[in-house]
Design brief:
two-stranded antiparallel ribbon, 18 helices, mainly alpha, about 425 residues
């Protein structure tokens, strides 16, 4: 809802809600509350996934968003008295369910926000073939059938990369002109899907158990589909714009940049779908009162993006490795996760080494993969260990390039011993 930390205010990472292609109104709930089961239902099997989610902004936004003064300012401009009650904020920032016969928000952005309301598919999805049978020893034929039945009942599986990623962009593109022009909400997040999907919750925790980064082939496909969706939803935004104001101008600028980016990527790999997307986008002028042509162009981009996601596995797309997020993107990525920038809970460390400006974080704000600062209040301790960076070009070291750590003899804390790149 503001330019500060758009992962919170620019509408829900990776993730958001299940919808058909096209632009929707933000005030309309994307999930049927009567079919929402809630994160606890998923957590019965996906314990590691839910544990990672509980350390994310998608989880904490449920409590933090209504208390933010920036959110309150936008709500006031929009005439919203209660952010969690019948407001434009509900569809993207919260998950609503039936509670005591009434529709109420029960959490922030949850598993069902991306995978679909679970009532119709959660039982078949968790049935591995009988009593005593688990996922590890499930019959392959039964697994294939279970997956197919789950999808038929409304589940969006991770293998359907376009549909999963679409749920991010339907909210991160902020499909609400009034919310931007009148409320002052940011006109979408500056989102790059690889960095954002490989952050707090890496969306493959069921297979790795440790929230590890996706394989390079998967990262390539995430990048391509993300760029295609960025173009698609920018076109849809321009198509729905009615006034030459902030929303229209921002969406047109976003569409122009996304279109140019797709053209550049198309030159790096052999995937004709990319140039087809570019030509489709180029066929419609970025102007007001051009909804039909812009929507048709967006639909064409979506068609080619789906074909791209279904046809390739990323193994032959090494040519785009050089454009995947690199070190220069880490500053923004860290900022979106709340580990950098103007946050009141970040404090300057007393460490006086060559790095300068080092920050440390109260344990209660630390993600599960962080150690937190030393309970003994060691003045030169930090929390650099176990911080995997989601970029394939890095060496196997678990820390940011340029960081060097050594265990302190007196505790399990980590001491920064060399200069740290000043990303913030």
């Amino acid at each position: 809802m503001i330019k500060l930390r758009p992962i919170l205010m620019g509408l829900a990472l990776a993730g958001a809600m299940i919808m058909a292609p096209g632009l929707v109104q933000a005030q309309k709930l994307h999930l049927d509350p009567a079919k929402v089961m809630g994160p606890d239902a998923c957590g019965e099997c996906h314990k590691s996934s839910v544990a990672a989610w509980k350390g994310s902004h998608h989880f904490s936004t449920f409590k933090t968003l209504p208390r933010m003064k920036e959110a309150r300012a936008i709500a006031n401009k929009m005439g919203i008295k209660r952010i969690k009650s019948g407001s434009d904020c509900l569809s993207c920032h919260f998950t609503s369910a039936m509670v005591g016969g009434k529709v109420k928000p029960i959490a922030g952005i949850t598993c069902e926000s991306c995978h679909g309301a679970g009532r119709d598919w959660i039982k078949v999805h968790s049935d591995f073939g009988g009593k005593g049978i688990k996922a590890e020893n499930e019959d392959p034929a039964h697994r294939t059938e279970r997956y197919a039945k789950s999808v038929a009942a409304g589940m969006t599986r991770p293998s359907n990369l376009y549909s999963v990623a679409q749920n991010c962009y339907t909210c991160h593109s902020v499909p609400n002109e009034k919310l931007v022009n009148t409320g002052g909400h940011a006109a979408g997040s500056k989102m790059e899907l690889v960095a954002w999907s490989q952050g707090e919750v890496r969306h493959n925790v069921w297979y790795t158990k440790e929230n590890q980064v996706s394989a390079i082939e998967r990262l390539r496909m995430i990048y391509l589909v993300g760029r295609a969706l960025d173009l698609e939803y920018a076109l849809r935004g321009v198509a729905k714009a009615t006034k030459k104001a902030t929303y229209a101008l921002k969406m047109a600028k976003r569409a122009k940049k996304a279109r140019k980016r797709i053209k550049a990527i198309a030159k790096l790999i052999d995937a004709p779908e990319l140039m087809a997307m570019y030509k489709a986008a180029k066929s419609a002028k970025l102007k007001l009162n051009n909804e039909a042509k812009l929507t048709a162009a967006a639909d064409a981009v979506a068609k080619h993006a789906k074909a791209l996601a279904a046809k390739y596995d990323g193994s032959t797309f090494g040519g785009i490795d050089k454009v995947l997020p690199k070190a220069k993107k880490i500053q923004r990525w860290l900022g979106e996760l709340g580990f950098a920038g103007r946050q009141p809970w970040l404090r300057r460390s007393r460490y006086s080494g060559p790095a300068g400006g080092i920050r440390r974080f109260p344990t209660k704000w630390a993600m599960p993969r962080w150690n937190g600062y030393c309970p003994l209040s060691c003045s030169a301790t930090w929390i650099a260990t176990a911080f995997p960076i989601p970029f394939p070009w890095l060496a196997s070291s678990p820390t940011i390039p340029g960081w060097s750590t050594s265990r302190m003899a007196t505790s399990s804390c980590v001491k920064v011993t060399t200069e740290i790149p000043r990303f913030w």
